[in-house]
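Private note to self, pasted from the team thread so I don't lose it. Backbone tokens:
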């Protein structure tokens, strides 16, 4: 039975009257809002280093760090049109610092991390402590820590920046400060935190440092050795050999909003598919392989970056029968976990059918 025309007209007039009052009915939007599972717009995507690198070097010719504050090419999720984000919570950018350059000191409430892609000899000074960069290293700049970058070496240095900027923007708590000087004094010994936390399971007494890790640098050489020393029994069906970077004071994630993992896919390994309620950005550190995300295959090699949105099924494969492949990722999982909302599930078929 249809409602009488008089009712329909009354209803339409009612809805029209709501708009100028900044009101709207929930009932037309309810099912779009409260979906059975995440329905985000972020898409899986891969950025090839072979395409990204020449553009970044071109930026190095055209834009100085003095003009740019940070010479960064942002990796924008093609599904999140108009947003500066790789996932709804995460920002990723590829940064270039040429020999002799500095990127001036500032601090902001969004937290940042860097994974070094290429070159060595550059450093980030974090709250007075220089952390030197080599490929594969992870360096943290916790929320509100002073940081500037310098490259006194003779090679261009390129790294992947990960920030929780979209999250902090959504929360409307972005704060930034720029002091007048260009760089911080290195008032602490270089790489001090590395020397304080050399032996896993031992830590110096420390004052309350807040929720971020006081260990600011994680050298790839140590990470690679730890991964290579893992017994086969430690392998996960979804990630093969995986280690999470931890805050040595808590054993928890390196930052309250972002966690990091390093993983080794042994030669020939093909993992099973699963999905989880967190998003991740991956940098390929070594080797060649592919990941199947939401039924699509993404082939990757060293320097490539790919993103896995929340709740997208994914599995990884190392195509080489000889060489191990290594991935480093950053994720918003710690944030989701702290809200008690983390969940994960295996793909019922073990592997995804290819779309
Ligand atoms: O190096 O401090 O990619 O402030 C975005 C914002 C890097 C940085 C980014 C930043 C930085």
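Design output:
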């Amino acid at each position: 039975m249809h409602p009488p025309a008089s009712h329909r007209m009354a209803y339409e007039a009612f809805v029209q009257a709501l708009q100028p009052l900044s009101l709207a009915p929930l009932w037309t939007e309810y099912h779009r809002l409260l979906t059975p599972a995440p329905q985000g717009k972020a898409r899986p995507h891969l950025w090839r280093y072979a395409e990204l690198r020449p553009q970044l070097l071109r930026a190095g010719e055209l834009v100085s760090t003095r003009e740019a504050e940070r010479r960064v090419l942002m990796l924008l999720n093609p599904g999140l049109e108009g947003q500066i984000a790789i996932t709804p919570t995460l920002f990723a950018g590829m940064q270039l610092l040429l020999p002799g350059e500095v990127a001036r000191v500032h601090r902001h409430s969004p937290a940042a991390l860097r994974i070094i892609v290429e070159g060595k000899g550059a450093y980030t000074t974090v709250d007075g402590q220089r952390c030197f960069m080599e490929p594969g290293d992870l360096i943290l700049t916790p929320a509100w820590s002073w940081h500037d970058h310098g490259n006194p070496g003779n090679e261009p240095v390129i790294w992947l920046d990960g920030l929780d900027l979209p999250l902090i923007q959504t929360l409307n708590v972005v704060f930034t400060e720029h002091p007048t000087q260009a760089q911080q004094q290195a008032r602490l010994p270089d790489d001090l935190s590395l020397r304080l936390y050399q032996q896993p399971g031992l830590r110096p007494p420390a004052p309350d440092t807040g929720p971020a890790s006081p260990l600011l640098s994680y050298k790839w050489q140590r990470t690679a050795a730890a991964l290579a020393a893992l017994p086969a029994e430690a392998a996960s069906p979804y990630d093969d050999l995986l280690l999470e970077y931890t805050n040595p004071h808590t054993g928890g994630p390196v930052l309250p909003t972002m966690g990091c993992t390093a993983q080794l896919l042994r030669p020939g390994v093909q993992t099973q598919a699963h999905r989880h309620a967190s998003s991740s950005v991956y940098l390929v550190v070594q080797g060649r392989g592919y990941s199947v995300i939401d039924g699509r295959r993404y082939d990757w090699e060293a320097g490539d970056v790919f993103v896995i949105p929340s709740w997208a099924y994914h599995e990884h494969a190392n195509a080489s029968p000889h060489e191990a492949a290594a991935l480093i990722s950053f994720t918003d999982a710690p944030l989701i976990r702290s809200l008690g909302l983390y969940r994960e599930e295996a793909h019922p078929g073990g592997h995804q059918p290819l779309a």
